[in-house]
Design brief:
This protein has about 475 residues and is mainly α. It has one domain: MFS general substrate transporter like domains (Growth Hormone, Chain: A, Up-down Bundle), CATH 1.20.1250. The chain has 15 helices and no strands. α2 crosses α8, α5 runs antiparallel to α10 and α9 packs antiparallel against α12. The longest helix is centred in the C-terminal third of the chain and has 37 residues.
């Protein structure tokens, strides 16, 4: 087995005094985190705006779009574990992760552009087929890039708390990309020609996102000692993930929280236009949530060092549920009230994405402790699928609920439709946060237990290198 360290097949960003104790130095953190801004922007522009674009511009039935996103989750169930497994098992002079990331970039650009460019000559049936193919292709390309990227992040450090720095930096970039997506949504929603606006966004934004996506595969090294240590098959690897008691708790909690969190993006354009009566603030209002979320991440990382990762996340879930739940009482013109509540919700939401991924990396060490394998790709696939399943479920639920409530695009909504929008926007995060809190209480892999596991893994690695 190769000695402890990183591959040097191509020139890479390395910390000053390049050794494994500096794997979270600033140049590496920046090079690793930067792509998150790119893939977050294109992901959330699709997930948070396509439903409204399809109903209000393409004039497609909300339930039909919901079904498409539901089919996308079935497609993810196939592609996510497959890419995770293949990424874990890949052998090349460029490493396990980087070839996949480089292959994913052009695919993302192609299908991202296709989502927003259906020809105007298509019939409704042909339009449905075009959109379904574009969405499935987009999510497959997103998987090809993001699962190896997240897996590489789990490899960067073996330290219990340095991992929080890695994923804290990634989360800050990810949330910044979300802010860019909301800005683009605001521009498209208020444009006189929405079709032309989304085409311009897809072209310009896609190229800029690709530049960010290149940072990690070109600049960040991989650990050579992990090569060839993945699972035996994609579904055997996924089975091992589910059998890991710590990972199982974490994934269920992340999925439930994702149900609530996905509501903000999916319903924010509808709430701004049809509840708040301020369509001009579609981009501005979510910015309060996003910016407060970014600002809170260093605070949550510091708190996790003092009271532990799990307890920090439990506190955040309480805040998220309360602040989101209170948005039920927002009505026309209540801009200040809604923005204040979203600041509180954003501060709470800053914890889960960063601390949760750090906790996931710890569970991967537990898996190696019990199986002798390194399955970062499989665990990243499970984590990504849980989030996409949650948000896809929200989109599907929203589409069906709007259809049943009598929603009609571009007109004053009935009291039933208004109540549906407010109930989903406030109720899903409230219920999701407290359900996730109940599940997360069962997570027991704390700093002390993780240190014991890491000590044994390091002892085994030392014995193998001596042989």
């Amino acid at each position: 087995m190769a000695g402890r360290g990183v591959s040097e097949a191509v020139p890479l960003v390395k910390p000053r005094n390049a050794d494994e104790h500096n794997e979270t130095a600033l140049p590496i953190l920046v090079a690793y985190a930067a792509p998150a801004a790119g893939f977050s922007f294109i992901l959330f522009f699709v997930q948070f705006y396509f439903l409204k674009f399809a109903t209000d511009v393409l004039l497609m039935a909300p339930a039909l779009i919901g079904v498409m996103f539901g089919l996308g989750r079935v497609w993810d169930a196939i592609t996510d574990p497959l890419v995770g497994f293949l990424s874990d098992r890949t052998r090349s002079r460029f490493g396990r992760r980087r070839p996949w990331m480089l292959a994913g970039i052009p695919l993302l650009l192609i299908f991202f552009g296709m989502v927003w460019s259906p020809p105007t000559s298509l019939s409704q049936g042909e339009l449905a087929v075009w959109c379904a193919v574009a969405l499935l292709g987009f999510y497959a390309a997103y998987t090809v890039y993001t699962i190896p990227h997240q897996a590489l992040g789990a490899e960067l450090s073996t330290d219990h708390h340095r991992r929080s720095r890695v994923f804290g930096a990634q989360r800050m970039a990810f949330v910044f990309g979300m802010l860019l997506a909301f800005t683009a949504i605001g521009y498209a929603s208020n444009a006189s020609d929405p079709r032309g606006a989304v085409l311009w966004i897809a072209g310009t934004g896609g190229v800029l996102a690709a530049l960010f996506l290149l940072a990690t595969p070109l600049l960040v090294a991989e650990r050579s000692e992990y090569v060839g240590r993945g699972g035996a098959s994609p579904y055997a690897a996924l089975r091992d993930v589910w059998r890991n008691p710590h990972a199982r708790v974490l994934l269920v909690a992340w999925f439930i929280e994702g149900l609530g969190g996905g509501v903000l993006g999916v319903l924010a354009p509808y709430v701004s236009e049809y509840v708040l009566k301020r369509p001009d603030l579609i981009a501005v209002i979510p910015a309060f949530f996003v910016l407060s979320s970014v600002a809170s991440i260093p605070v949550w990382i510091a708190l996790s060092r003092r009271i532990g990762k799990r307890d920090s996340w439990l506190i955040a879930l309480v805040g998220s549920g309360i602040f989101f739940g209170a948005t039920f009482f927002v009505g026309p013109g209540d801009v200040v009230l809604l923005c204040g509540l979203l600041v509180g919700a954003g501060v709470s939401a800053g914890c889960g994405g960063a601390i949760g991924l750090s906790m996931l990396a710890d569970t991967i060490d537990f898996d190696e402790f019990t199986s002798g394998q390194r399955k970062e790709g499989a665990y990243s696939a499970a984590w990504g699928f849980a989030l996409k399943l949650a948000i896809g479920g929200v989109i599907m639920l929203t589409g069906v609920a709007l259809q049943l409530s009598g929603f009609e695009p571009n007109v004053e909504q009935t009291p039933t439709a208004q109540l549906t929008l407010r109930g989903l926007f406030a109720g899903a995060p409230l219920i999701g946060s407290f359900c996730a809190l109940w599940v997360l209480r069962g997570f027991s892999l704390d700093a002390t237990e993780h240190a014991r596991i890491r000590g044994e893994l390091d002892r085994r690695a030392g014995g193998e290198s001596e042989r």
